[in-house]
Amino acid sequence: MSYAQRDVGVTGGNVAVRPPRLMEQVRQRLRAKHYSLRTEQAYVGWIRRFILANDKRHPREMGAAEVEQFLSRLANDHQVAAGTQNQALAALLFLYREVLGLDLPWLENLTRAKRPQRLPVVLSVQEARTLLACMEGRAWLVASLLYGTGMRLMECLRLRIKDVDFGRGEITVRDGKGGKDRHTVLPRSLVEPLQREVDMALMLHAQDVAEGFGQVWLPHALERKYPNANRERGWQYVFPSLHRARDPRGGVERRHHFGDAVLARALKAARVRARLLKPVTAHTFRHSFATHLIEAGYDIRTVQELLGHKDVATTQIYTHVLNRGGRGVVSPLDRA
Q1: pLDDT tens digits, residue range 193-226?
Q2: Residue 131 belongs to what H/E stretch?
Q3: 3-state secondary structure at position 93
Q4: Phi, psi (degrees; rounded to nearest 5) at 119
């Protein structure tokens, strides 16, 4: 019996379609509000864990007390980070408010995970160059672009060809954090390799079109508003995947962007070869970009705009990184 047949029943000669299950409702609502696939996967995961932790009871039978207990257990028993607990809370609030139409009272008895105040890990200029020298191919180009532009990882991987302006030497970041657009610099040293990458992306696109494919994913309602845009050259990813795959949210076979897991493995291997003791992630390049610009004397407001920070206070954390030895003081041991 097919999936469709299992979902219908005949009652009095009428075909009755079963209502969507809870997780299907969650996914439908998330997609209707244009949440990313990663957020969808995270929220669905937390909602499942919440239901399993309460003996598979339906969330309508539970409320603020069960939510408080679940989130407090994450902090007390599992000692999760504050960001992890906040993500779980956001998922459950979305479930109750957006899917079930219920408003939870203020969670007064919730034990909050403590958010430690930490300085970002920043590479020196020499460390960054050494690390990049230990990389090659597309992973090298993506990592170089992260360090040279200050983009977030997914902003870089989702970059479209039309948003790279070789003539003006700038990159337009679309739909960044908070749904904002911004401009950042295109490093001159990356113009030639990036142009080669664009040429390869266009070649892959032409091959896909010839084989009856070539549709790229478009954000929000653009696919309905511009029905032919998903085949246009400018909308293709700068870093397309080398293989086509089926989109989990629609089943359409298309070419996605370069995978972040591939870059993570390349960074880990490069860090070992470079003999760096500092932990390195893709976001480390963004921290290093900001710190090195401030070191070079650029105004903090300029750095704020390039990073896309809403508040300059967020950018000011990099000034603390520069305060070597406790706010830049000279130790008495080092005085002549």
Answers
A1: 999 999 999 999 999 999 999 999 887 667 778 8
A2: helix 125-133
A3: helix
A4: -85, 145
**Rounded to a whole number, what is the distance in angstroms from the first to the last CA of the chain?**
86
Task: Give the pTM.
Answer: 0.78
Instruction: Check: CB of residue 133 under 8 Å from CB of residue 95.
Output: no
Nearest-CA neighbor of 267 among 148, 149, 130, 152? 130
Strand positions, DSSP E, 90-239 = 164-165, 170-173, 182-185
Q: Is 164 left (phi over 0), alpha (psi -120 to 50) or beta?
A: beta
180: region left, alpha or beta (phi > 0 left; psi from -120 to 50 alpha) = beta
Architecture of the domain spanning 18-99: Orthogonal Bundle (1.10)
The label of the residue with tokens 């079109």 reads 209
User: How buried is 42 (Cβ within 10 angstroms: 0-12 exposed, 13-18 middle, 19+ buried)?
Assistant: middle
Q: Which residue is it, tokens 């040279």?
A: 148
**Residue 270 has which token pair?**
């490069």
Average pLDDT of span 132-148: 96
**Rg for the chain (alpha carbons), in Å?**
24
Q: Classify residue 271 as left (phi > 0), alpha (psi -120 to 50) or beta.
A: alpha
Residue reference for tokens 């939870």: 104
Domain residue ranges of the chain, discontinuous segments joined by +: 18-99, 125-321
- Measure the CA–CA gap between 211 and 308, rounded to whole angstroms: 39
Positions marked catalytic: 152, 177, 283, 286, 309, 318
Round to whole Å and give the CA distance between 129 and 109: 49
Query: Crossing angle for the helix pair 191-210 and 137-149, nearest 10 degrees?
Result: 120
Identify the pLDDT of residue 249. Answer: 74
Structure tokens given for 288: 């290093």
Query: Is the domain 125-321 a CATH 1.10.443.10 member?
Result: yes
